[in-house]
């Protein structure tokens, strides 16, 4: 069992402006609220998940958030009301202490972000490394984030909140192998008064675990796969990532980008592990085989012209019509690309039209 805690206690989640007439987490992009986007990373976990939402009572009463959360979590979410200011995310999460099994895995996520990643793969990695805790990281130098320092083997040795000690910032995602690891670290953090700007941050729990010689590692997110909704500019930037007729893949990647770069640096980030490509009776399986085929096909062309790329109304598919030129010879192709829930390419139906 994995317990996932989402804290909705931060005042910034309910900010309003002249541009947005509702609290930030209720802003909609493509008919989905920002809150829903924050939950996507855990929506496809294949195992049993206990979902807990920490929600300010006054905000719930004012905006009727409980029914929305219930629908978004398919009726499986449990809401715990927060009364007043708790002093930070650590204090808020401790309100769920009676709901956490000491031996269960615990994940704490933020409600004002979007992460495009395969969480099953990430958790499997944390488990395979016998990590006691794990975080997702992205590249930044801005001191509004928490940062990690790590050894050559990837083990994290220090976490600094609002202080840049590396280029690896922590996304709003914290994994704990056992519930009691988190609870003990949180209690020690509070007993020591380990606050930053008067707030108890989850990053402080990691430092407490480091002092106990616990193993903490990170998972670097692909460039462009993390969006934090910290202000209106960031929300607009996220909205603009949904470019019309250009469905995005992991890290903001698009199928047609392969044609521009003529290479695929990280096939595992673009293709599902079981990806297949069908080409007039021939079949290619696996991310490396499909990647090599496409690179060979495209790399040999002297000129490339993309006539069409758009979503298919049926299912999570994209069609692409393009021409490859070899001297005076023009070959026209039609590809139908099926995407997984995580945005990776699952299959390609590759057809020569002339």
From TrEMBL:
InterPro entries: NTP_transferase_dom (IPR005835), Nucleotide-diphossugar_trans (IPR029044). It comes from the Bacteria. SUPFAM superfamilies: Nucleotide-diphospho-sugar transferases. Residues 58-185 form the Nucleotidyl transferase domain. This is Sugar phosphate nucleotidyltransferase. It comes from Tatumella terrea.
